[in-house]
Design brief:
This protein has helices at residues 34-40, 104-107, 242-254, 272-277, 296-300, 321-327, 357-363, 385-390, 409-413, 432-441, and strands at residues 44-51, 70-72, 75-77, 86-93, 99-102, 110-116, 122-124, 126-131, 136-140, 163-168, 176-188, 195-199, 211-213, 219-227, 237-241, 261-262, 265-269, 286-291, 307-311, 314-315, 334-341, 344-351, 353-354, 378-382, 399-404, 420-424, 427-428, 447-454, 457-464. It is α+β, with helices and mostly antiparallel strands and 467 residues long.
Length: 467
C-alpha cells in the first residue's frame, strides 16, 4: 500500500526510513541571522597595528617552508608612505569598561594598536595580557563610555552541525557577517595548543580575533586560523573554544600571561606497532620520546618509551590531549599518571609545576650547555648515539629541533620538534658546535635556508629572521 513501510527481508541490503513514501513534512526554513548580526555587530571592533617586524607576505617556493596549509590570518597592508608596515585584524568587546579579546598574532610585534568601533571612533589600545600558545590576547581601550558587549557562551555545549555566525573585517571590509555550521570539534592543528572548533563559515585574512557566535547570540569561539592552499577561505576555519579562553582570562588580566603546569616530556603519537608491542590494544595515549632534566617527569621517574594512557584516571585518546589536560590543572596539583612500561601498568604519582618551556626555548632544551637558540622561537639539541637510534637515524650527524615556540618565525617556516637540521645555507652541520658556527657565519642574513631530515626524507625550509 502506498505510504506503508516495506517489511524487513533477509535479502534486503539496506534499512528503509520508517514512513518512507508518506507525504513529506514541510521543510524547515534556514535560520535568519539578521537580528543576531544587528545586535552583536556593535561589539565587534577593527584592530589595526603598526609593526616593526611584520613577517614577509612573500610565498616561499614549494618545498621551502611554504607548504604549511594552516594559516593565521592577520591581513598585512604595506604602504610606501608610512614608516612601518601595518596589519589589520578583528576583536570583540567583552566588558563595558573597554576590555577586548583578539588573537595574539594580531598584535604581535605591534608598536601601536588602534581600535576602531562600529560608530567610527578610534582609540589607542594597550595590551593587558597575551598567550601565544592559545593565540589569545586581552587589550583595553579607555574613555569610550559605556560600550556594547558580546556575551561569552559555552563552547562545550556546541553541537557539530549547529549554525554559527562569524563577524569580522576580512580584507579590511569591516563588520562583514558570514554564516555556516560547526563542522567538527576537538580539532588539533600542528604546532598549536588548542583543540579547535572547526567551521565552514567563510573567514578570511582580517577575520583574526573576531567572534564565532551561536544561535543564542553568545560567543563560542575566537576565530584564529584557516586551512588553505590559496591564502583565502576554503571552507575550513578554526576558532579557539571560548571555554578555554574563559579559563585564561583571570590570569591574562592579573598576570599579563598564562602560567601552565607541565610534565617535562616530549611526546609522540602511539603507532599501531607500538601499541601491539606494549599490549595496549587499539593505539591511544602519548608515548614519552624524551624526559627533560630537572622536570616533574624526571623526578617522578618517567622513562623514554613509557606510554601515558591516563592522567588522574582520565583516558588519553590522542597524544595531543595530554598537554591540554596538564596545562589546565593548577600548578602544585598532585596527579597520578597511568603508564604502560614493558607491557605492565604502573601508577606514577607526579607533582605538576609551572612550565619551563619559555626558558628552554631561550636557553636550549636540556640545559645551557646542550642547546643553541635562534632568536626566532627555535632551540636545538645535540644528537648522541641513543638519540640517533631513537630517531631511526643512520648516524648522529646534524642537530635535532628540541622546541618550536607556537607563533614564532620557526613555526611559520614549518619547523617541528624532532626535525633534524643537517645543512645551513648549503653547508653541512655535523653537531652542536657546527650549528653555532653556521649561525655565526650567516648572522647578517635575513633568509636562512635549512636542509631538514624529517621522517624518511629531506626538505628545504626557508627561515626568515626579520619581516
Amino acid at each position: 500500500m502506498l505510504g506503508a513501510a516495506m517489511p524487513a527481508r533477509a535479502d534486503h541490503l539496506w534499512t528503509d526510513l520508517p514512513g518512507a513514501g508518506a507525504q513529506p513534512r514541510k521543510a524547515e526554513t534556514l535560520p535568519d541571522f539578521a537580528d543576531l548580526a544587528e545586535k552583536l555587530s556593535p561589539a565587534v571592533v577593527n584592530i589595526s597595528t603598526e609593526q616593526k617586524n611584520l613577517p614577509s607576505a612573500e610565498t616561499p617556493p614549494e618545498g621551502e617552508g611554504g607548504n604549511d596549509p594552516f594559516d593565521r590570518f592577520g591581513q598585512p597592508f604595506e604602504h610606501y608612505d608610512v614608516p612601518r608596515p601595518h596589519s589589520l585584524g578583528s576583536g570583540f568587546i567583552i566588558n563595558k569598561d573597554g576590555y577586548i579579546l583578539t588573537n595574539d598574532h594580531v598584535i604581535e610585534d605591534a608598536t601601536r594598536i588602534v581600535v576602531t568601533l562600529r560608530d567610527g571612533r578610534e582609540f589607542k589600545a594597550r595590551v593587558i595580557g597575551r598567550d601565544g600558545k592559545t593565540d589569545v590576547a586581552l587589550i583595553k581601550i579607555d574613555g569610550a563610555g559605556q560600550l556594547p558587549v558580546a556575551p561569552l557562551g559555552d563552547s562545550d555545549g556546541v553541537r557539530v552541525g549547529a549554525w554559527v555566525l562569524a563577524i569580522g573585517n576580512p580584507f579590511g571590509f569591516d563588520h562583514s557577517v558570514t554564516a555556516g555550521i560547526v563542522s567538527a570539534k576537538g580539532r588539533f592543528v600542528p604546532g598549536n595548543f588548542d583543540d579547535f572548533i572547526q567551521t565552514d563559515a567563510s573567514i578570511n585574512p582580517g577575520n583574526s580575533g573576531g567572534p564565532l557566535i551561536d544561535q543564542r547570540g553568545a560567543v563560542v569561539g575566537v576565530n584564529s586560523a584557516i586551512y588553505t592552499r590559496t591564502g583565502s577561505s576554503m571552507g575550513i576555519g578554526f576558532a579557539v573554544p571560548v571555554n578555554l579562553v574563559k579559563e585564561e582570562l583571570p590570569q591574562l588580566r592579573s598576570l599579563g600571561k598564562v602560567v601552565r603546569g607541565w610534565l617535562g616530556v616530549y611526546i609522540q603519537p602511539v603507532s599501531e606497532a607500538q601499541a601491539t608491542a606494549a599490549g595496549l590494544g587499539p593505539p591511544h595515549g602519548a608515548m614519552v620520546a624524551e624526559v627533560i632534566d630537572n622536570s616533574p617527569a624526571k623526578t617522578a621517574g618517567l622513562q623514554h618509551g613509557d606510554i601515558i594512557v591516563q592522567f588522574d584516571h582520565r583516558e588519553i585518546g590522542e597524544s595531543q590531549e595530554l598537554p591540554l589536560i596538564v596545562g589546565r590543572v593548577p600548578v602544585g596539583h598532585s596527579a597520578t599518571l597511568t603508564v604502560i612500561r614493558n607491557r605492565t601498568t604502573h601508577e606514577i604519582p607526579i607533582m605538576i609545576t609551572a612550565s619551563r618551556e619559555e626558558q628552554l626555548a631561550s636557553a636550549g632544551a636540556g640545559g645551557p650547555g646542550d642547546g643553541a637558540p635562534l632568536p626566532l622561537g627555535l632551540s636545538v639539541k645535540q644528537i648522541d648515539a641513543g638519540l640517533a637510534q631513537q630517531l631511526n637515524l643512520a648516524d648522529a650527524a646534524g642537530v635535532m629541533v628540541a622546541a618550536v615556540e607556537p607563533g614564532s618565525r620557526a613555526a611559520a617556516a614549518g619547523l617541528r620538534a624532532h626535525d633534524v637540521i643537517v645543512e645551513v645555507d648549503r653547508q653541512a652541520v655535523k653537531n652542536l658546535d657546527g650549528w653555532r658556527r653556521a649561525l655565526d657565519r650567516v648572522a647578517g642574513d635575513n633568509v636562512v635556508l635549512l636542509l631538514v631530515r624529517r621522517d624518511k626524507g629531506t626538505i628545504f625550509v626557508t627561515l626568515r629572521r626579520r619581516g
